[in-house]
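Box 3.1. Reading complex inputs
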Amino acid sequence: MLKIIIPTIMLIPTTTMCKPTQLWYTTLIHSMLISLLSLQLFYPSLQPIMNFSNHNMAADQTSTPLIILSCWLTPLMILASQNHLSTEPLSRKRTFIITTIILQMLLIMTFSTTDLMMFFVLFEATLIPTLMMITRWGNQMERLNAGTYFLFYTLMGSLPLLVALLSLYSNTNSLSILTMQLSPTMLKNTWTNSMWLLAALTAFMIKMPLYGLHLWLPKAHVEAPIAGSMILAAILLKLGGYGIIRIMSTTNFLSKTPYYPFMILALWGIIMTSLICLRQTDLKSLIAYSSVSHMGLVTAATLTQTEWAYTGAITLMIAHGLTSSLLFCLANTNYERIHSRTLLLTQNMQLLLPLMGTWWLLASLTNMALPPTINLMGELTIITSLFNWSNTTIIITGLGTLITAIYTLHMFSSTQWGELPQHIKIMAPSHTREHLIMTLHILPMTLLMMKPELIWGPLYC
Amino acid sequence: MNPHANMIIMSSLILGPMITITSNHWIMAWVGLEINMLAIIPLIAKQHHPRAIEASIKYFLTQAAASSLLLFSIINNVWNTGQFDITQSTNTMSSTMMTAALTMKLGLAPFHYWLPETLQGTTTMMTLILTTWQKLAPLTLLMMINQSLNTSLLVTLSLLSMMIGGWGGLNQTQLRKIMAFSSIAHLGWMTMILTLSTKLTLLTFYTYITLTTTMLLTIKLLETNKMSTAMTSWTKSPMLNAMMMLNLMSLAGLPPLTGFMPKWLILQELTKNHMTIIATTSAILSLLSLFFYIRIAYYSTITLPPNMTNYSQQWRHKNQQKPYLPLMIITSSMLTPIMPTFMMIM
């Protein structure tokens, strides 16, 4: 693990010291090399053991795909932000790149730590760079509001988690994921333990976000710069799912009733947020609500606590991470040309940017989970495991899939087809850099279709 | 000020708390507090501005009232127990009165009203002395009598301080007043843990001193007294301005910055003593303070105002770079990873 973290840390002096003309591609190539280096984590994670790198850090099948995804996202963020930052002075460009690098470092440590307390501290630590990214480099004035929402929603949920973890620690004297798995603390079905579980889960539910606690997410996505949207959709939401899986698998809870409210909200949220997507006028907001809808599936799956469900959750998290990041990049290419996120003002883009149209098609198809994408693999596994949990969920999940297809088609058709708006007088052609970003998103998705067991999590041993 | 007078005042300012801290006898402790109070009054009033005079009067009245209450409770204690030993103040009534007197000296809610007013009336450097050095003697006395203090009373007082520190600061635009409310909230954390672990009180106090000193020195260097001047402070020292945000987040206690360390340990101690509800409440109350800290950060660091500066040529002033400030900023933001070392030496 250190051979990923130390180069990441050394990227910070590289960024501050390298020549202004070489800034972008030096950091890009360096971070790309780090992400290639991280791929070797896949090898030991194919065995059913934790791959220890030192006393405090380990990676297993659940965390390895997420670590590699966060390493993969950093070069993409650097690549995607180049146009957005082109008017900024040099020192602010450097600061921005350093923020993304610190975020990557914190995320790698969050996913690889073996101690729940350490996990909590790092989980919170990712807030500060993300907040800086949203509030400092966003475009509109509403970004301050969005930043406050983001910070306070997350902290309001996670401070009870801190107390819950501390009280667990005073009972068991250890918060290590490994020892807790070996000697599971059986929580009796008492009122206190239900409150404990509620406190422990709410933080992750807000981060996911669960329907009802999701209001911060569309705001944050709409106001964030492209890199902020990408990291938020691709990794930060997955911190919630990862946290639930960790808490669930380390503490065996006897009763299932405390999960019911979360389950109902998650399943109901799939339908509701998909329906909200249908009436969105704002492209980025649409993609954000689509994230909420997909994360509803992941939440529901992790709450059933079966092996299949965990597999489906991890697969969908990775698939959705790449897909939604890709969609945000595509939305950003339009935004940088039209300077508007409104769907009505970006019609018939395939006439102007034909190759982008291809990427839009591919992204839409993966978002609606067409076979043989890994999105379908994840959704199908989740739907199956939910069906196993209760037969009637098939109505909701089936309907959810249907509406997902409808709103994705709506998004695709309203951006790519239709009448070309009159206000578009001049349009910059698409850039090779932009095509490279899209390719680097599509490529891992395509490759994972051929070897999906890499992201199957605990099922594949 | 006359250099001789200045020297006498400054040395008594230092001497007063020293006498209090080292004394074992209640009268000596009280004498130390009085020396300290008498020394700081002329310092607050040094500016010869009506507001400074008002601040010094307010400070004098509250401190004198607190001192006389303290003296009364000392005598009451002596009447009942027959000795002047500070650590043996076992009489319930006098220890309760001592709590009231010392919290009044500290500026803890509900005896906090003088603190924001006094701090707003004086200079930034006096604010620094009032929020750090002046807390030392009363806090030490509280720690010395912690055996006979009433836990539920102190917990109530500290929860009240956290609430008032948070809610009071929301309404302010003057940075010194905000720092006063931040001080009230932090003192709430210190007294919360006072009866359970005095070591943690000390740790919280040290962290609080570090963070507040860094913040106030930054404010002094950037000459920002209110939100509107904070907006243009980036022209003076962009790097320091950027670091101010980290420092503010640390004051708010966001992990993994230094400010999180004492809060974490206090919450742990509280949950260990089965005070989970109180721990959760105080953790959530710290979000109130976070709101106004983040508002300062929004004004100073995050946004660039459309107008460059309030008056022309602001960036032409050569501001003196302080060599100790980078060190202080690092201390006040990155100390959490070495927490195990603290645990060992304390």
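In summary: The two ends of chain B are 41 Å apart (CA to CA).
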